[in-house]
Each structure stands twice: as C-alpha cells, then as structure tokens.
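Table 4 source record.
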Amino acid sequence: MLTDNHHRIINYVRLAVTDRCNLRCTYCMPENMRFLEREALLSYEEILRFMQLLTGAGVNKVRITGGEPFLRKDLLFLLEKLVKIAEVSITTNGVLTAPYIPQLKALGIQQVNLSLDTLQPQKFFRITRRDQFTAVRKTLDGLIDAGIPLKLNMVVMDGVNTDELTDFAALTRDHPLSVRFIEEMPFNGQGKGFSGIEWHYKRILDAIRAVYPLEKLADAPHSTSMNYTIPGHAGSIGVIPAYSRTFCGTCNRIRVTPTGHLKTCLYGNDVMNVRDLFRRHATDEEVLSQLQAVLHQRFANGFEAEAANRHSQLESMSVIGG
C-alpha cells in the first residue's frame, strides 16, 4: 500500500496519455503550442507496466487525461487493458468522443468527465478558438443517452461565462449528471503572473443560490468537490475549489504526465520520471522504492507546494495532465 508522510493512502492516479489537444482554450494554453514527439511519451507498454506496479501496491482507480486523450492513436487498446486491472474513467473535451461512446459503454468505463465551459456556440469559439461546439454537444447528449456516469466540468471565468452558471445548473433538472463548477487556476501555459480569482467557490455558490435552492449532499471520501442537489432535479452540482484548495487534506492521488513525470501535487514540481527509470532498465522494486520515497517527502497541501515552486514558469494544463 502506498502512503505519504501525512498518513494519506494513495489509491488513485491521473494519467495523461498525450499533451496534444484539438482545442486552444484561452485559460489553458497559447494558440501556438509545440507538442511532444511520440518517442518522448510513455509508450503503452510502459504505461501498462507502471499501472501493474501501482495496482499491485493498492491503486485501484485511474483517470485517463491529456491534452485530449482521444488524439492518442489506439486509445481503445489501452483502455481494454486497463479495465482489467483498475476502475477506469476518462476526461475529454468531447470533440472526437461521440463515435466511441458505444465502446466506452461496453468496456464498463466508470465515468466520463466532459469539459464544456459554455452552452453558447459563438462563445465556445471565443474560448476554445475552434468551431467544435456541435461535436461536443453531440458527445454530451450521447453520453446522457448511453447512461454512462457523467460529470460536466465548467471552468468559471470572470467576465466570460459567469452569466451561464444557472444555465448549467438547469441541465441537472432532467438528467442525472453532475455539473461541476471549477475555480480558475494559474496553469494557463502563458508564462504570465496569476494574482488570484474573483469567482471563488463561495461566490459561485451564492450566484446559484440566488436562483435555485441548494441542499448539501454528503461528500464522498477524497472528494475534490462540494456537492449539492436542487430539489426536484435528477442530477447534482458540485463546486471544485481548485484555487482555494480546501480539499488537500484528504488527497489520495498522484499525477503522471505524458512524458512520465510524476507529480504528488498539481501545484508542485515533478518529483521523479517513470519513463526514464524504465528506459534505464530499473527493476520494478527500484521504481516502487523511489515512488514511496518521493511520497514521503510530499507537501501537506497545494499552498506549500506552490511556495516551493514559485520560481518555476507556469505550465499548460495539457502538459501537466488535465
């Protein structure tokens, strides 16, 4: 069993399979990105080897992220292998996802997190710099129709989409999905300063409460969101204090970037590289030993990690991994 120096059990890994994305969301990356060459990425064989090591050490959940994971060739091959050893979920922007929905259903994918920051096609183009709203909406409707557990993630941006908070909340009226409102984070890939946010989780909740009554739901262990239901609605809403970082004390996850770098905190530096260890022919025991060692040097929360990382240039979320 993997544990950190704060007695937190690690049983969940967020695994980015590519840094490539077919959108250019303004809060995530610049228009002109230089993406990695294929050989720089963890191969599927390396991913499966690492996941076998992790599941043997108690990890039972993996979330496949990117960039946009469906840009990685033969992703279904990887998913077919992973569902045999762990609970698998996926985060996607939905542009390419719709045709794969029947296969995801058949594989028993536990959950899909769909990123969508506006319900307005013209605004979608302004945010993403791409005219793909119709494709994403097709994915949203297809996932609902297929009955795959769905979380719809909206990054709340001051002056951009805050006028749509209640429109998103209204989606829960007839559909059993979870709409999650995420505080904006500094990982914009622009290399610019980030001085804080206007729309923190309390303000988001107040804006929704002005229109809908909210009833608090019990939060699942290790939940990163504060969850609510609107009486009479089939679904729920959640607010993720990603910048406020109120959930760090129960963090049970690690992140692996497309190049095999491992992060024990989203706001921290890379602490080891799995790809390089494998390609230097490290044994399984050596890899697990180094992993446990870095976990025992883990920061208590995202604020400690950010302070230690304050001189580093802010990365794109597509490089970090969703």
